[in-house]
Specification:
The protein is an alpha/beta fold. Helices cover about 40% and strands about 20% of the residues. It has two domains: about 200 residues, Rossmann fold (3-Layer(aba) Sandwich), CATH 3.40.50.720; about 120 residues, UDP-galactose 4-epimerase, domain 1 (Alpha-Beta Complex). It has a seven-stranded parallel beta sheet with strand order 3-2-1-4-5-6-11, with helices on both faces. The protein has a three-stranded mixed beta sheet with strand order 12-9-14. Strands 7-10 form a two-stranded parallel ribbon. It is globular, with a radius of gyration of 19 Å. The structure holds uridine-5'-diphosphate.
């Protein structure tokens, strides 16, 4: 496949570009480098552009296409930031994606794999969240992604855009060769913050946001899924769209929940060091538990996550953090 990867310089997008390359697919990356890294684009042609520039996007699709598939990762994705500053979430995630869709319609492209999120569900009504779970987001980030999921259904009906929305639970881990990995500034995600705290010279230490949630140890439970398992799901979803017509959605997770304290314990074992932390106030917009039921993706796409235990995921992230290159 020839794939346009919007946001391919970011954490998840760059791992997908490597996976595409390893499976002999061709990719072109468009990224504004707002949070991504130029050094992470190693297996693709690179074009620096912003999806908010709709006319430029159309030009890229016309000049560099036709593409068999568009994958769209460009988004703001921090729950807390979205509560404080919803305007940038609706602009980037909703207006930006409308630009992508309109550019596709204008240039005759009709297949999209879209990065969605477990945050579209809001507070869980079941132990594991499947695709039938109601979507009632509790923060603007989740709301912005839910809006686009609804837009995708309408664009399929009206303009024939075929799409797969992949709802990630907690992406983590790094390329096992440690060529690329997770690197955000500022870093807000749990696992990279644990690993940073494990370095002896990290004076700030680790903050655990909330220890009074209705969970066994009082800390939030999440479903941690390796970024390369997300990568394989994207390629399967892209292949699925070559022969299936609709606006589809799949939940992607391991189906196992780990509390913040359990992740810290697992990291201690992998790293062989103590990891000091302090308990702080809960973060706005964080639901207590989010765990996926990914049976639908497994049955329909033939997806099988390879990193099923938290320690092997942490080991790949630790290797990357030890020799982080960007
Ligand atoms: N968390 C934490 N300390 C940190 C970062 C995150 O206690 O430095 C908690 C956060 O409150 C949530 C869980 O870890 O309960 C996962 O947060 P993350 O930001 O990694 O992902 P999210 O679930 O928000 O997508």
């Amino acid at each position: 496949m020839k794939v346009l990867v919007l946001g391919g310089a970011g954490y998840i997008g760059s791992h997908i570009c490597k996976a595409l390359f390893l499976q002999s697919h061709q990719s072109v990356v468009v990224d504004n480098l707002s949070t991504g890294h130029r050094q992470a684009v190693r297996w693709s042609q690179f074009i620096e552009a912003d999806i908010l520039a709709g006319e430029q996007l159309k030009q890229i699709l016309r000049e560099e296409g036709p593409f068999d598939l568009i994958m769209h990762f460009c988004a703001k994705s921090l729950v807390g930031e979205s509560v404080e500053n919803p305007a940038i979430y609706y602009r980037n995630n909703v207006v930006g994606t409308l630009n992508v869709l309109d550019a596709m319609v204008a240039t005759g492209h009709d297949k999209l794999v879209f990065s969605s999120t477990a945050a579209v569900f809001g507070l869980p009504e079941a132990d594991k969240i499947n695709e039938q779970h109601s979507r009632l987001p509790i923060n603007p980030y989740g709301q912005s992604k839910k809006m686009i999921e609804d837009v995708l259904a309408d664009y399929h009906h009206a303009y024939g855009i075929k799409s797969v929305a992949l709802r990630y639970f907690n992406a983590c881990g790094a390329d096992p060769d440690a060529e690329i990995g997770e690197s955000h500034e500022p870093e807000t995600h749990l696992l990279p913050n644990i690993l940073k705290a494990a370095f002896a010279d990290n004076a700030s230490g680790l903050k655990v946001f909330g220890a009074d949630y209705p969970t066994a140890d009082g800390t939030c439970i999440r479903d941690y899924i390796h970024v390369n398992d997300l990568a394989s799901a994207h390629i399967l979803a892209g292949e699925y769209l070559q022969t299936n017509d609709g606006a589809f959605a799949f939940n992607l997770g391991n189906g196992n929940g780990f509390s913040v304290l359990q992740v810290i314990e697992a990291a201690k074992k992998v790293i062989g060091r103590d990891i000091p932390f302090t308990v702080e106030a809960p973060r706005a917009g964080d639901p207590p538990v989010l765990v996926a039921d990914a049976a639908h993706a497994k049955a329909t796409l033939g997806w099988q996550p390879l990193y099923t235990d938290i320690e092997s995921i942490i080991a790949t992230a630790w290797r990357w953090h030890q020799n982080e290159m960007f």
